[in-house]
Amino acid sequence: MHVLALCGSLRQQSRSLALLQAMRTLAPGRLDFTLFTGLGELPLFNPDLEPCAPSPVQALWSAVTQADALVIASPEYAHGVTGTIKNTLDWLVGLVPFTDKPVAVLNPSHRAQHADDALREILRTMNAQLIPEACLRIPVTACELNAEALASDPALSPLIRSALAALESFHANSLPRQGES
Ligand SMILES: Cc1cc2nc3c(=O)[nH]c(=O)nc-3n(C[C@H](O)[C@H](O)[C@H](O)COP(=O)(O)O)c2cc1C
């Protein structure tokens, strides 16, 4: 299974990024977990550019097309989603393979809900398949733990593992069974 992770914060010390890095650490070997690092290179979305998309956009489209599922962790800015994640998703609105893509949304805040709700609404509008059991609040923005410490934290690592398990189980259940056409 190929999982592509998208982080809605461009900060070097981003807690959302640390959460996704911890998830990559905890992912079982059979799961290919890739963190897409080019979101800061995407130009502002402009439909006029789509027919001849710049290379950072092509790279995003290719990574999303190849992924079996996406994981998004993104903070809340002024009660909304970050420009980074909105711009990324705007580039994906017209990408046919995005339709029905299984997506897990991780809310990295211990208190914020506006951005999480808005992000899910955007994804539903884009016809993504939200995986409810994998969409969790994993509160990391208020703690100072790095990715390594998050991956071994007794309270947070079980939440991260359960999101991973939910992703795998959703994927397994969506595969055609033997004998089914
Ligand atoms: C411009 C800006 C606006 C913010 N607005 C909110 C907000 O509305 N609600 C909230 O809970 N936190 C808000 N925060 C705090 C961030 O969610 C917090 O700093 C978080 O750790 C940022 O995510 P990151 O560590 O992944 O970059 C804001 C931070 C910034 C920089």
Key features of this structure:
181 residues; alpha/beta; Rossmann fold; five-stranded parallel beta sheet; two-stranded antiparallel ribbon; globular; binds flavin mononucleotide
Question: Could you walk me through the main structural features you see in this protein, from its secondary elements to its overall organization?
Answer:
By secondary structure, this protein is an alpha/beta fold. Helices cover 39% and strands 14% of the residues. The protein is built from 6 helices and 7 strands. The strands form 2 sheets. The chain has a 5-stranded parallel sheet with strand order 2-1-3-6-7, with helices on both faces. It is globular and about 50 Å long. The model has no long low-confidence stretch (mean pLDDT 96). The structure holds flavin mononucleotide (FMN). Flavin mononucleotide binds at residues 9, 11, 14-16, 75-79, 109, 111-112, 141. Residues 9, 11, 14-16, 75-79, 109, 111-112, 141 line the site of flavin mononucleotide.
How do the helices and strands line up, and which of them pair or pack?
Elements: E1 2-7, H1 15-26, E2 32-35, H2 55-66, E3 69-73, E4 76-77, E5 80-81, H3 83-92, E6 102-106, H4 114-125, E7 129-130, H5 147-152, H6 157-174
Parallel strand pairs: 1-2, 1-3, 3-6, 6-7
Antiparallel strand pairs: 4-5
The site of flavin mononucleotide has 14 residues, from helix 1 and strand 4.
Cα-atom radius of gyration: 16 Å
Q: H/E series, N to C?
A: EHEHEEEHEHEHH
Give the neighbour order of strands across the main sheet: 2-1-3-6-7
What is the CATH superfamily classification?
A: Flavodoxin domain
CATH class, named Alpha Beta
Q: Tally the structural domains.
A: 1
- What would you call the structural class? alpha/beta
Ligand inventory: flavin mononucleotide
